[in-house]
Amino acid sequence: MKTFQDSFLYACWCSIHFFGASDPPKVHLESLNLPDNTVTVVAGNKLRLEVPISGEPAPRVWYGHFTEPPKIRVPRHLKQTYTRKVGEAVNLVVPFQGKPRPKVTWMKEGQAIEPSHVSIRNTDCDSIIFIRKAERTHSGKYDMTVQVENHVDSAIIDIQIVDLPGPPQSVTIEDIWGRNVALVWTPPKDNGNAPITGYTIQKADKKTMEWYTCIEHYHRTCITITDLVVGNEYYFRIFSENMCGLSENATQTKKSALIAKEGTIVKIPEYSDHDFKEPPKFTQPLINTFAIAGYNATLNCSVRANPRPKVIWMKNKIAIIDDPRYRMFSNQGVCTLEIRKPSPYDGGLYTCKAVNDLGEAQVDCKLEIKG
């Protein structure tokens, strides 16, 4: 009597295809030479393929599984640079999926990770990267790869370990005048693996050498210290600052700054007077307007000039002088002509003309009276 294992040797290939989770599973067998056999597929958590042998009361059963492509589920906080301070612990859990159990590999900057520096533990559904005491050498891009047979998925985790910055490279006194001292310095050579966020400037009297803070969180690399005491001699020092805090040491000026009691000469720069004079120029022209007979109408424009220009209003090129039907206003360069209860006779071409010693300018518009 044949057993299931003996009969299965005649099978060259067997492939099973599912066409949608809601449809019953369909089976496709190729080159299967098992005479008088029947095939049964039972849906469940796993695929079960039963091949009863003719005459056998208890058929042998073969169990199989499906291949699920791998997928890394990167947590939201790891999709951007993950930052920790030197000495802190790093414990990252990166979940993934895939069947059968995927093969997980980690690389740092294209190189294999030294187990003595970084501890990695993999389970069926996640990978844990653990650093007990972070150092700046742990910074970099970690490439995680998950593989199931020929299917591969990868993700990059960017880890940044930051530390206190070094002090500025040099601090010099650029100038001294009155009760003021100008300082200039260069950024630190070591920024602690994080951007420099500011500087703290301190001063000390040469007699006491007690340090007092002048300004904190200063962003530039030059500053003027003011309101110093006349007759005192000062030293200055500067700390660098990043997200971890102030540098452990400060850079001090090699020379002192003496605030002299007398003989101070202040150089007053000479400036030439600016000529603000200009000829008239209309910044807002007149606009063609429609008005209703019997209702007041206004025309507006604006002019810029220095000295103040003389404004003349004209109708059909004839100056409007002492006409009670018209009122003229000029305020801060805004010129207004008010026409009281106009009639169709008041329609026509209106002109506003501005004149001063440097020139003249004019604008026109048409006024049409309806009614």
Automatic annotation (TrEMBL):
<dbReference type="InterPro" id="IPR003598">
    <property type="entry name" value="Ig_sub2"/>
</dbReference>
<dbReference type="InterPro" id="IPR003599">
    <property type="entry name" value="Ig_sub"/>
</dbReference>
<protein>
    <submittedName>
        <fullName>Myosin binding protein C1</fullName>
    </submittedName>
</protein>
<keyword id="KW-0393">Immunoglobulin domain</keyword>
<keyword id="KW-0677">Repeat</keyword>
<feature type="domain" description="Ig-like">
    <location>
        <begin position="280"/>
        <end position="368"/>
    </location>
</feature>
<feature type="domain" description="Ig-like">
    <location>
        <begin position="70"/>
        <end position="158"/>
    </location>
</feature>
<dbReference type="InterPro" id="IPR013098">
    <property type="entry name" value="Ig_I-set"/>
</dbReference>
<dbReference type="InterPro" id="IPR036116">
    <property type="entry name" value="FN3_sf"/>
</dbReference>
<feature type="domain" description="Fibronectin type-III">
    <location>
        <begin position="167"/>
        <end position="263"/>
    </location>
</feature>
<dbReference type="Pfam" id="PF00041">
    <property type="entry name" value="fn3"/>
</dbReference>
<dbReference type="InterPro" id="IPR036179">
    <property type="entry name" value="Ig-like_dom_sf"/>
</dbReference>
<dbReference type="InterPro" id="IPR013783">
    <property type="entry name" value="Ig-like_fold"/>
</dbReference>
<dbReference type="InterPro" id="IPR050964">
    <property type="entry name" value="Striated_Muscle_Regulatory"/>
</dbReference>
<comment type="similarity">
    <text>Belongs to the immunoglobulin superfamily. MyBP family.</text>
</comment>
<dbReference type="InterPro" id="IPR003961">
    <property type="entry name" value="FN3_dom"/>
</dbReference>
<dbReference type="Pfam" id="PF07679">
    <property type="entry name" value="I-set"/>
</dbReference>
<dbReference type="InterPro" id="IPR007110">
    <property type="entry name" value="Ig-like_dom"/>
</dbReference>
